[in-house]
Every structure is written in C-alpha cells, then in structure tokens.
Write a structure and sequence with these properties.
Mean pLDDT: 93
Number of helices: 4
Strand content: 35-45%
C-alpha cells in the first residue's frame, strides 16, 4: 500500500528503513523525545528495528497503522502517523519533528493532512491523540487541528525512564 500526501510546503510519504539516519537523528535525541513514551531510541539498531516494522506494515494490503515521513524540500524532518483500532473505525494520531523544525508550523500542517487522510481516505469515525500534560505545544496543536479535550486524568508511562505523568486525551468525532 502506498499513499502520498502533499500539503502547501510538505510531502508526506511512507516512512521506511531508508530513512534510518534522519529518523535516528531526532529519535535518539533525549530532549526532542522527552514526551514520547517509547523513545529515545538509544541505538541505530533500535531505530532500524522500528523502521523495519514500519516498512513491513506499509507492504500490507490493509495496514494497521500508517507512519508517514514528513519531507520538507527533499529532507526528512519528522514523522506523522495514524494507528487504527481493531475495528478500524478509530485512529490515534501522532507526530514528531526534529527539534530544528519546531515552531515553524510544520507539525500542524502535517497533522491537519493526516487528520484529513484518516477521515476522508480511511473513513474513520473518531480520532484521538494524547500528550503529557506538560507538553503544552502538543496540546495546542491538538486544539488547532480541531480536537477537543476529552480527558485530563489519564496516566502515561515512560518505560525507558520508569516514570509516569498525567496524560491529556483529545478527540474528534466525525459527523
């Protein structure tokens, strides 16, 4: 399965193993990934293992998730995704950008595109996204793309740091 999405400034295309060096640059950065539950990726091999799984998922006729590379002027600057529930009617949105590209509107541009893809191509009925309560930029992005705060009392666990934090859940339900 192959999907490509173009926005005003970005190309979203399937993330894959050939993106290893660019992904590892942001995925191994502790500051850049401090609010990501399964990061940082400590080794190149750990990042490669993730990307091999992503590449294999894109090869399926009916993927359970879609991880898109966010491309700006030919360079990978991050990723945006939607993970489907078993019934394939609810999707969980996610995004990460290399910190060099924060505060430039790229994350919201990519998130809006993945939201549209989830609703109009995958025909999902509901979208959710979560963030650490301390991650104000992510919460603002969720609101900017039309998600509403559903819950502010969840708990997220950072396995690699053996830490927990309060989790915010935002959602959008299609009409």
């Amino acid at each position: 399965m192959y999907h490509e999405i173009r926005t005003e400034r970005l190309l979203l295309r399937p993330l894959n193993i050939t993106d290893l060096d660019s992904v590892h640059e942001y995925a191994s950065d502790a500051e850049n990934t401090r609010f990501m539950m399964r990061m940082p990726k400590r080794t190149l091999e750990e990042t490669a293992e993730f990307l091999i799984g992503v590449t294999e998922e894109w090869e399926k006729d009916d993927p359970a998730f879609y991880e898109f590379a966010v491309i700006l002027n030919g360079s990978l600057i991050g990723a945006v995704s939607v993970y489907l529930n078993d019934e394939r009617n609810v999707g969980e949105l996610g995004w990460i950008l290399n910190k060099k590209f924060h505060k430039m509107g790229y994350a919201s541009e990519a998130a809006i595109a993945i939201k549209d893809f989830a609703l109009n191509t995958l025909h999902l009925k509901k979208l959710v996204a979560q963030c650490d309560y301390r991650n104000a930029p992510s919460a603002r992005l969720m609101e900017k793309i039309g998600l509403k705060l559903e819950s502010d009392d969840g708990v997220r666990t950072y396995i690699k740091r053996n830490e927990t934090a309060r989790e915010l859940t935002y959602s959008f339900t299609a009409d």
